[in-house]
Amino acid sequence: MPAKKNTNLEEKSVEKDNIKPSIHSIEWTDYVLSLLSEDEKISGNPTTDGLRRIFELALDCRVISSTSQVVQSPEPNNEKRATVVHSITFVLKDMDGDRDHLNTITTDGAADVYYGNCDKIYRNHPVAVAETRAEGRALRRALRLRKVVAAEEIAKDIEDNPDSHNINKISNNQLNFIDVLCKRLDINALKMIEKIGHDTKNIYNIEHSDAVNLIKTLSSYQQNISSISDDILGYDSNWK
Fold first, then answer.
1. Which residues pair with 169 in a beta bridge?
2. How high is the pLDDT of residue 41?
3. What ranges in the chain are assigned the alpha helix state H?
4. How far, in Å, CA of 194 to CA of 199, rounded?
5. pTM beyond cutoff 0.85
6. What top-level class would CATH report for the domain 14-153?
7. H or E element at residue 62
8. What residue ranges do the domains of the chain occupy?
9. HSE, side-chain direction, 13 A CA sphere, residue 34
10. pLDDT tens digits, one per residue of 109-161
11. Average model confidence (pLDDT) for the chain?
Protein backbone atom coordinates (compact mmCIF):
# COMPACT_ATOMS: atom_id res chain seq x y z
CA MET A 1 0.00 0.00 0.00
CA PRO A 2 1.27 3.51 -0.77
CA ALA A 3 2.53 5.44 2.21
CA LYS A 4 -0.06 7.72 3.73
CA LYS A 5 0.80 11.37 3.49
CA ASN A 6 1.33 13.14 6.74
CA THR A 7 -1.27 15.85 6.17
CA ASN A 8 -0.88 17.17 9.71
CA LEU A 9 2.77 18.02 9.11
CA GLU A 10 1.92 19.67 5.78
CA GLU A 11 -0.80 21.77 7.36
CA LYS A 12 1.56 22.83 10.16
CA SER A 13 4.22 23.77 7.58
CA VAL A 14 1.77 25.93 5.59
CA GLU A 15 0.49 27.46 8.80
CA LYS A 16 4.03 28.31 9.85
CA ASP A 17 4.75 29.95 6.48
CA ASN A 18 1.66 32.14 6.84
CA ILE A 19 2.55 33.38 10.34
CA LYS A 20 3.00 37.14 10.41
CA PRO A 21 6.47 37.95 11.73
CA SER A 22 6.93 40.16 14.75
CA ILE A 23 7.71 43.81 14.09
CA HIS A 24 10.89 43.19 16.09
CA SER A 25 12.05 40.28 13.92
CA ILE A 26 14.62 40.40 11.15
CA GLU A 27 11.97 39.19 8.69
CA TRP A 28 9.65 42.13 9.36
CA THR A 29 10.91 44.45 6.59
CA ASP A 30 10.68 41.73 3.94
CA TYR A 31 7.17 40.92 5.10
CA VAL A 32 5.98 44.53 4.77
CA LEU A 33 7.54 44.92 1.32
CA SER A 34 5.88 41.67 0.19
CA LEU A 35 2.49 43.35 0.72
CA LEU A 36 3.25 45.85 -2.05
CA SER A 37 2.33 45.25 -5.68
CA GLU A 38 4.99 45.62 -8.37
CA ASP A 39 3.57 48.95 -9.55
CA GLU A 40 4.01 50.26 -6.01
CA LYS A 41 7.78 49.96 -6.31
CA ILE A 42 10.30 51.89 -8.39
CA SER A 43 13.64 50.15 -8.82
CA GLY A 44 12.80 48.09 -5.76
CA ASN A 45 11.99 51.10 -3.57
CA PRO A 46 8.45 51.39 -2.21
CA THR A 47 6.37 54.38 -3.26
CA THR A 48 4.71 56.55 -0.66
CA ASP A 49 1.31 55.66 -2.14
CA GLY A 50 2.12 51.98 -1.67
CA LEU A 51 3.27 52.39 1.92
CA ARG A 52 0.14 54.38 2.67
CA ARG A 53 -2.07 51.62 1.25
CA ILE A 54 -0.55 48.76 3.25
CA PHE A 55 0.10 50.76 6.44
CA GLU A 56 -3.03 49.76 8.35
CA LEU A 57 -2.83 46.18 7.04
CA ALA A 58 0.79 45.67 8.10
CA LEU A 59 0.40 47.16 11.57
CA ASP A 60 -3.20 46.02 12.09
CA CYS A 61 -4.05 49.55 13.10
CA ARG A 62 -6.48 52.35 12.44
CA VAL A 63 -5.19 55.73 11.25
CA ILE A 64 -6.65 58.62 13.23
CA SER A 65 -5.02 61.45 11.29
CA SER A 66 -2.37 62.07 8.65
CA THR A 67 -1.42 65.73 8.29
CA SER A 68 1.34 67.92 6.88
CA GLN A 69 2.75 71.21 8.12
CA VAL A 70 4.88 73.51 6.00
CA VAL A 71 7.54 74.87 8.35
CA GLN A 72 9.56 76.68 5.69
CA SER A 73 8.14 78.18 2.51
CA PRO A 74 10.28 78.60 -0.61
CA GLU A 75 11.61 82.09 -1.29
CA PRO A 76 14.68 83.55 -3.02
CA ASN A 77 16.50 84.12 0.30
CA ASN A 78 16.42 80.39 1.18
CA GLU A 79 17.17 79.07 -2.31
CA LYS A 80 13.45 78.37 -2.73
CA ARG A 81 13.74 75.61 -0.15
CA ALA A 82 10.59 74.03 1.26
CA THR A 83 10.51 72.12 4.55
CA VAL A 84 7.53 70.00 5.52
CA VAL A 85 6.76 67.86 8.58
CA HIS A 86 4.21 65.06 8.21
CA SER A 87 2.55 63.46 11.23
CA ILE A 88 0.66 60.16 11.33
CA THR A 89 -1.45 59.32 14.37
CA PHE A 90 -2.81 55.80 14.66
CA VAL A 91 -4.04 53.26 17.19
CA LEU A 92 -3.36 49.54 17.18
CA LYS A 93 -6.59 47.58 16.83
CA ASP A 94 -5.88 45.39 19.85
CA MET A 95 -5.77 48.64 21.87
CA ASP A 96 -8.86 50.09 20.19
CA GLY A 97 -11.47 48.83 22.63
CA ASP A 98 -12.04 51.93 24.71
CA ARG A 99 -12.96 54.73 22.31
CA ASP A 100 -12.93 57.25 25.19
CA HIS A 101 -9.31 56.54 26.07
CA LEU A 102 -7.48 55.75 22.84
CA ASN A 103 -3.82 54.82 23.20
CA THR A 104 -2.67 56.71 20.13
CA ILE A 105 0.78 56.59 18.58
CA THR A 106 2.15 59.52 16.58
CA THR A 107 5.09 59.33 14.21
CA ASP A 108 6.64 62.29 12.37
CA GLY A 109 8.74 62.58 9.27
CA ALA A 110 10.46 65.70 7.89
CA ALA A 111 11.88 66.62 4.50
CA ASP A 112 13.38 69.70 2.90
CA VAL A 113 13.52 70.15 -0.86
CA TYR A 114 15.24 72.65 -3.14
CA TYR A 115 16.66 72.66 -6.67
CA GLY A 116 19.84 70.87 -5.56
CA ASN A 117 18.19 67.70 -4.21
CA CYS A 118 15.15 67.40 -6.45
CA ASP A 119 14.72 66.04 -9.97
CA LYS A 120 14.62 68.84 -12.55
CA ILE A 121 11.10 67.95 -13.63
CA TYR A 122 9.77 68.62 -10.12
CA ARG A 123 12.05 71.49 -9.05
CA ASN A 124 9.25 74.06 -9.45
CA HIS A 125 7.09 72.18 -6.94
CA PRO A 126 9.29 71.94 -3.82
CA VAL A 127 6.41 71.98 -1.30
CA ALA A 128 4.58 69.10 -2.97
CA VAL A 129 7.78 67.05 -3.24
CA ALA A 130 8.74 67.79 0.37
CA GLU A 131 5.27 66.77 1.57
CA THR A 132 5.45 63.43 -0.26
CA ARG A 133 8.96 62.74 1.05
CA ALA A 134 7.99 63.70 4.60
CA GLU A 135 4.98 61.38 4.51
CA GLY A 136 7.12 58.56 3.14
CA ARG A 137 9.59 59.00 5.99
CA ALA A 138 6.82 59.07 8.59
CA LEU A 139 5.36 55.86 7.13
CA ARG A 140 8.77 54.16 7.06
CA ARG A 141 9.48 55.16 10.64
CA ALA A 142 6.11 53.95 11.92
CA LEU A 143 6.48 50.68 9.99
CA ARG A 144 10.03 50.30 11.36
CA LEU A 145 11.50 49.40 7.99
CA ARG A 146 15.22 48.70 7.92
CA LYS A 147 17.53 50.00 5.18
CA VAL A 148 14.59 51.08 3.01
CA VAL A 149 14.14 54.42 1.27
CA ALA A 150 10.89 55.54 -0.35
CA ALA A 151 11.11 55.95 -4.12
CA GLU A 152 10.24 59.67 -3.95
CA GLU A 153 13.24 60.36 -1.71
CA ILE A 154 15.66 59.46 -4.50
CA ALA A 155 16.61 62.17 -7.01
CA LYS A 156 18.34 60.97 -10.18
CA ASP A 157 18.28 64.03 -12.42
CA ILE A 158 19.18 67.06 -10.32
CA GLU A 159 20.62 70.31 -11.65
CA ASP A 160 23.99 69.58 -13.28
CA ASN A 161 25.64 72.66 -11.80
CA PRO A 162 23.43 73.86 -8.93
CA ASP A 163 23.70 77.61 -8.70
CA SER A 164 21.54 79.58 -6.31
CA HIS A 165 21.64 82.54 -8.71
CA ASN A 166 19.63 80.55 -11.27
CA ILE A 167 16.70 80.46 -8.87
CA ASN A 168 15.98 84.15 -9.54
CA LYS A 169 16.12 83.75 -13.32
CA ILE A 170 13.34 83.29 -15.84
CA SER A 171 11.56 79.94 -15.43
CA ASN A 172 10.59 77.42 -18.10
CA ASN A 173 6.94 78.13 -17.40
CA GLN A 174 7.52 81.82 -18.11
CA LEU A 175 9.44 81.05 -21.29
CA ASN A 176 6.66 78.80 -22.54
CA PHE A 177 3.98 81.34 -21.69
CA ILE A 178 5.88 84.10 -23.52
CA ASP A 179 6.24 81.81 -26.53
CA VAL A 180 2.50 81.03 -26.61
CA LEU A 181 1.52 84.71 -26.43
CA CYS A 182 4.10 85.74 -29.04
CA LYS A 183 2.87 83.08 -31.44
CA ARG A 184 -0.75 84.10 -30.87
CA LEU A 185 0.05 87.80 -31.48
CA ASP A 186 2.62 87.19 -34.26
CA ILE A 187 5.33 88.93 -32.21
CA ASN A 188 9.06 88.34 -32.52
CA ALA A 189 10.03 87.61 -28.91
CA LEU A 190 13.69 88.65 -29.24
CA LYS A 191 12.82 91.97 -30.90
CA MET A 192 10.25 92.70 -28.22
CA ILE A 193 12.71 91.83 -25.42
CA GLU A 194 15.42 94.01 -26.99
CA LYS A 195 12.99 96.89 -27.42
CA ILE A 196 12.08 96.76 -23.75
CA GLY A 197 15.79 96.96 -22.94
CA HIS A 198 16.91 93.45 -22.03
CA ASP A 199 19.97 91.61 -23.34
CA THR A 200 19.01 88.71 -25.60
CA LYS A 201 22.44 87.05 -25.89
CA ASN A 202 21.29 84.55 -23.25
CA ILE A 203 17.59 84.84 -22.48
CA TYR A 204 18.02 82.39 -19.59
CA ASN A 205 19.79 85.19 -17.71
CA ILE A 206 16.66 87.36 -17.70
CA GLU A 207 15.58 88.04 -14.14
CA HIS A 208 12.40 86.39 -12.92
CA SER A 209 10.85 89.77 -12.07
CA ASP A 210 11.69 91.09 -15.57
CA ALA A 211 10.03 88.03 -17.09
CA VAL A 212 6.90 88.87 -15.10
CA ASN A 213 6.91 92.34 -16.67
CA LEU A 214 7.41 90.87 -20.15
CA ILE A 215 4.31 88.73 -19.67
CA LYS A 216 2.38 91.77 -18.44
CA THR A 217 3.42 93.64 -21.59
CA LEU A 218 2.27 90.79 -23.82
CA SER A 219 -1.01 90.61 -21.92
CA SER A 220 -1.55 94.33 -22.56
CA TYR A 221 -0.86 93.75 -26.27
CA GLN A 222 -3.45 90.99 -26.24
CA GLN A 223 -6.04 93.42 -24.86
CA ASN A 224 -5.08 96.13 -27.35
CA ILE A 225 -3.61 94.63 -30.52
CA SER A 226 -3.38 98.04 -32.20
CA SER A 227 -0.69 99.00 -29.67
CA ILE A 228 1.76 96.47 -31.14
CA SER A 229 4.39 98.31 -33.20
CA ASP A 230 5.40 96.94 -36.60
CA ASP A 231 9.08 96.63 -35.65
CA ILE A 232 8.42 93.70 -33.29
CA LEU A 233 6.07 91.74 -35.59
CA GLY A 234 6.98 88.37 -37.13
CA TYR A 235 6.88 85.36 -34.84
CA ASP A 236 10.02 83.21 -34.81
CA SER A 237 9.83 79.83 -33.06
CA ASN A 238 13.64 79.62 -32.74
CA TRP A 239 13.96 82.49 -30.30
CA LYS A 240 14.77 80.29 -27.28
1. 207
2. 94
3. 7-17, 28-34, 48-59, 126-143, 172-185, 189-196, 208-223
4. 6
5. no
6. alpha beta
7. strand 61-72
8. 14-153, 169-232
9. 8
10. 999 998 888 887 787 789 999 999 999 999 999 999 999 999 999 888 776 44
11. 84
